[in-house]
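Entry:
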Amino acid sequence: MLNLDPNESVILEVRKHWYVLSARVFVMFILVIAPLVLFSFLSNLIPTSIPLPVGYSATGFFYCLWLLVIWISFFINWTNYYLDVWYVTEKRIVSVDQVSIFHRKISNLRFDKIQDVSIEIRGAIQTMLKFGDIEIKTAAEGDSNFLMKNAANPDEVRRIIFSHHQFEHEKARPVHVVEEEIERPSKDQFIQS
């Protein structure tokens, strides 16, 4: 999936924080338990006119369908979580954005094209668990900014990106100036023409 140059290696792999996936998994767990609690509560309150074997069979069938939908939802969330990643190499940043199951967007950004790196940490949970949004602004026109929401350790990521960006700008680029003696025309030559 990641094509690197021969002398290029990955320095840092940036993913979303584990809290993002665990919060979604917790909601899915509640959605698995909620129908069982609701069914037991309703079966104790309302006497059913449906014979028990038929009622339990239909309820079991629909509950299994519900579990299948939640399992598929978990798989999609886990895939998006795992495949959304930034790779920081010595030369560039590679952003892999898993939009949906069969839709992936891969972008490259060289360090010399970076204008600014900003992070945003909102709230007590993000502050305590050290995650937030990272945005890299580029010199190109249009929508060429890199954005990763809920990235783990955004301060460390920004520090590493800035150090490589600074190294790229401080690299000595040899400039060869060739001095030639140019014959300058005299006033007489201009007058003769």
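The longest strand covers residues 92-100.
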